[in-house]
Amino acid sequence: MPSHAVPTDWLIDALALRLSRHASLPLGQQLYRLLYDWIQRGELVAGSRLPASRRLASGLALGRNTVLNATERLIAEGLVIARPGAGLFIAELPTFSAPSTPITPTPSRYSNRGLALLDRCGTLSPHHQAFAPGVPGLDLFPHDQWQRLLRRHYRQADQDWLTYQTQGGLPALKRALCDYLTLSRTVRCRPEQIVITQGAQQAFELIAHLLTDSGDSVWMEEPGYGGAQTSFMAANLNVVPVPVDAEGMNPALRPADAPSPALIYVTPSHQYPSGVTMPLPRRLALLEQASTQNAWLIEDDYDSEFRYDIPPAPSLQGLSTDGRVIYVGTFSKVLYPGLRLGYLVLPTAMADTFRLAHARLHREGHYPLQAAVAEFITKGDFSRHIARMRTHYRQRQACLRLALAPAVEAGLRLSSGHAGMHHAPCRRARKPATGSDTH
Ligand SMILES: Cc1ncc(COP(=O)(O)O)c(C=O)c1O
Which of 73, 276, 284, 321 has the most crowded Cβ, counting Cβ within 10 A? Predict the structure, then answer.
């Protein structure tokens, strides 16, 4: 390692010793990294002069541009100073004494809301083994085709997409989604009613921000989806657990002292996590209940594409006659969760407000990605992918049922398995008091 005020030749020798033509990091970046580290550690002393770029280039057998790129970056970052006519000098860095022990944030630094949120973060795991609920069969995703599509859309991205967007999502994607939702999900909408979000999670957050005040109540399925519950708790809402029976959320079983809700959150196509599908009479009763309570009904239709031997149940949004259903969808199950694309279908009168609030609060983006998804839908690849995955999930379910047959004989009851990607035992093993989480 070079010592203080290193003579030029020593520095070149020290660099030459460490630069490796076999490393994966390009030589220019290695040069930058070495100089950066030595300057940061004070091994190259403030005020000392660096060899001229020609000298460095010839001494290290590097192109001059490679050397210039590295030194220009150090200049831009303030580690090296260029004195016109004199050369490059190591800058004086502000002294910073690192604390002897790492700082661990104390609980008192967080708000109560923050602490409640942190409490729920422990259930998240990046590891997905077999049987992780809510994670699609990514091994069957048409990865190569998708990469080609993405590459093309990023290459031909519209110049206008580089700036801030306020359209509530790429119009082409909203049109494609609108056609798809109208046909397959009996959702009644026009493209202007759609706001594209970064997944359903952001949609819940937006709903909570715009339609509730701190302390308002939200009725949630019990057991229910922890992701939505986290958003509502983070917005300081009072989460009221409403039991789920064989037909989904049953408001008649709510706690006697349940306050009137601002929101009612349900997963009627495939209740999460029990897997039951809400029949039509219960849907109509729930719509009636939302009207009586003057509440917004949030229909989370996260994986309804996967139905096996039953016709699709009409969406609450399509059944509603008084425009109080907010439909939330996601591409996390039908494509992949890392895509982070979801959407809201809003009552017409609210769509503009949501669009503007979304642009203010979250900032929109990723239009080339949205263009790729739009093309995937309009060219029929989306429907083909869903059909393929449906067959696949049906087979997986059949295998699981076969394997569980002895347990079923011994008394285990399984949900019908008519829909969705996961299938839960009907008997509740333990109470998921804080909502059951996938992500
Ligand atoms: C009930 C439910 N809703 C929504 C989602 C998807 O959320 P996101 O779009 O944020 O990935 C999931 C994911 O597991 C879920 O289980």
Answer: 276
Per-residue pLDDT at 148 = 98
The three-class DSSP label of residue 296 is strand
Which of residues 406 and 126 earns the better pLDDT score? 406
Spacing, Cα 313 to ligand 1 middle (Å): 20
Angle, helices 53-60 vs 64-76, to 10°: value is 130
Q: What's residue 124's pLDDT?
A: 61
34 CA to middle of ligand 1, Å?
45
Site residues for ligand 1, CB cut-off 6 Å: 134, 199-201, 225, 227, 267, 272, 300, 302, 330, 332, 337, 342, 438-439
Tell me the mean pLDDT in the region 86-90. Answer: 92
| The domain defined by 8-90 carries CATH number 3.40.980.10 | no
> What is the helix, strand, coil percentage profile of the chain, to 5?
45, 10, 45
332 CA from centroid of ligand 1 (Å): 7
Tokens found for residue 144: 């190569």
Instruction: Give the global pTM.
Output: 0.80
CATH of domain 113-120+132-382: 3.40.640.10
Q: What is the mean pLDDT of residues 64-68?
A: 95
What does the pLDDT read at residue 180? 95
Q: Where in the chain is the domain with CATH 1.10.10.10?
A: 8-90
Radius of gyration of the chain (CA): 29
Give the distance (Å) from ligand 1 centre to CA of residue 129.
18
